[in-house]
Amino acid sequence: MADDPIRFGIIGCAKIARKVSRAISLAPNSTLYAIGSRSIENTKKFAIQNGLSETVKIYGSYEEVLEDPCVDAVYMPLPTSLHVRWAVAAAHKKKHLLLEKPTALDVAGLDRILDACEANCVQFMDGTMWLHHPRTAKMKEMLSDSLLFGQLKLIHSTSTFSPTPDFFENNIRVKPDLDALGALGDIGWYCIGAILWAANYQLPNTVTALPALTRSSAGVILACGSSFHWDEEEDGKVATFYCSFLSSVSMDLAVSCSNGSLHLKDFIIPYQENFASFEFTSGAKFAELHLGWTLKQKEVQVACELPQEALMVQEFARLVECIRNSSCCPETKWPEISRKTQLVMDAVKKSMELGFKPVNV
Amino acid sequence: MADDPIRFGIIGCAKIARKVSRAISLAPNSTLYAIGSRSIENTKKFAIQNGLSETVKIYGSYEEVLEDPCVDAVYMPLPTSLHVRWAVAAAHKKKHLLLEKPTALDVAGLDRILDACEANCVQFMDGTMWLHHPRTAKMKEMLSDSLLFGQLKLIHSTSTFSPTPDFFENNIRVKPDLDALGALGDIGWYCIGAILWAANYQLPNTVTALPALTRSSAGVILACGSSFHWDEEEDGKVATFYCSFLSSVSMDLAVSCSNGSLHLKDFIIPYQENFASFEFTSGAKFAELHLGWTLKQKEVQVACELPQEALMVQEFARLVECIRNSSCCPETKWPEISRKTQLVMDAVKKSMELGFKPVNV
């Protein structure tokens, strides 16, 4: 039993489930055991289209996946408005929970999920993949070197893409009853998460949404942004982000410190799977007479043996193994990261509702 | 006379005058004729330290430069609070005017300068060098290609550097009576200018300063930022910028459009003099299953035969030659660019004064 892989059940056949089912098969300590959607035909179709093994159990409901005693952990890519109901149900069935982002419509909803996970001693993690890439660890290691970078001053992040017209008609991410947070929840999540990551998860003091806000006719956010501010005692740090379903693909992250800066343009999904890079400067000055710089940005390349989503699954499964085999407590780092991200997202939304006024976090 | 170079007088021995005196000597159609500061000793010292030719006239006052009938044009790197007085005086003496940025403390001040230039039929240009780099023209050519980039959606710009402690004690740029606009005037000017440049000088509808504002004990702006918003009829474009005297060197410009994006990290002062580069993507999509991107950023390199500041001087001198030799009217493009930049800067300042409320431009 000790070396048995963690058996995953997937609830919902969203497009992202294709990527994560592949990741589950790539992660050495996990296996896809079952998959369920609201219709057994859809589940079968998904299994065939994605070449799932015939041993994977096919269910025609979410309940059946949760009732299956062989399922250790659930990956849940459901529309956000369904998260509280099904995530709480999964926790009550003692299923460890890998929950797609945004975790909930607001922090109150997320707290219901986290309370259920804690009460049932199951691991919680949200589906933010880039946090598991070795590039992310390398960047954090370097940013933490105060001689190299110094004090954190400014973070800027974008997450934009331009979906097909069909997306605006049919995708759950623009349906007010399914994903009311729209672009803020779907891709703003990454920007907020990246800013908090850079700030070592120290919450900003104030959050002020940018007046540039675009909503669909149904009221769903299609494009928005925000600035964050940390008080003087926290070095007066600043951050800005912008997310949009109306622009071409961008995933910029720029971190400026008192002695250096770091840039990458593909922080959420690296350009390619086997390696990723970022650029940085440290100690750059103006050349004599300001005719140039004393040094240019340097590139750092980081190899990646497994895709970041497989590393996410592997880390999640490792924590589940630890709980199962060694009676460890669930790791609190991951739910804490999710909760802070959701908390700041709530503040961005509140600032919008207040006419873009600063909101204390 | 037709091929005689334009004879420049420099008023003030600021550090930037060293760079521009070199540029005047590099530009094929201009020559340094005279230089004046408030003390003849300082002027002599400047001439010796910068290896100026012994033929350059050395004056112990600004007036003498303006009174010299052989001076065609004046380069004026004085503290901002002195601009109106001396720029207007220069125009009245029929001297063409290359004025260091920020052009004035507010648009009312700039209008007095521009009115004097117009009334005296002299060319006006501000000292924004990067606009004259061939890279800038290349980027504009590509951004204007709607198949390549599509509609402009988002612009982000930074201008930061971390001066020596001595700067905060002695530099004119942090003296409330000399350069009250501080970082906003000195380096925010570039960010505002870059955003307007990317937006083809279409003014934003609203300007909203970021609550992250740092002032010195004397009230001078040390770090600030703003967002700009264009209405839906203008494609709902958005821009953000941040400028600071408290962070390491950064000069980021990122332009995101509906079909492509463009990035560079040294837009104000290129890393080196002889060439500069930028990166862009066009038509990038997610790869199958969102496992990566269909294409990476491409680099475009642009050679530069003369440094951008020499190209600025050359362009200014060309316009002056045209007025002198062919009775052309002064080119209105450059004062219009300066005025729009100053107008938006005024709006940022007003938004700060109103507690970071949106200000209509």
Automatic annotation (TrEMBL), chains A, B:
Residue stretches making up the GFO/IDH/MocA-like oxidoreductase domain: 138-262
Source organism superkingdom: Eukaryota
GO molecular function: nucleotide binding
Domain Gfo/Idh/MocA-like oxidoreductase N-terminal: 6-125
Family: Belongs to the Gfo/Idh/MocA family.
PANTHER family: NAD(P)-BINDING ROSSMANN-FOLD SUPERFAMILY PROTEIN, PTHR46368
Name of the protein: Gfo/Idh/MocA-like oxidoreductase N-terminal domain-containing protein
Native species: Tetracentron sinense (Spur-leaf)
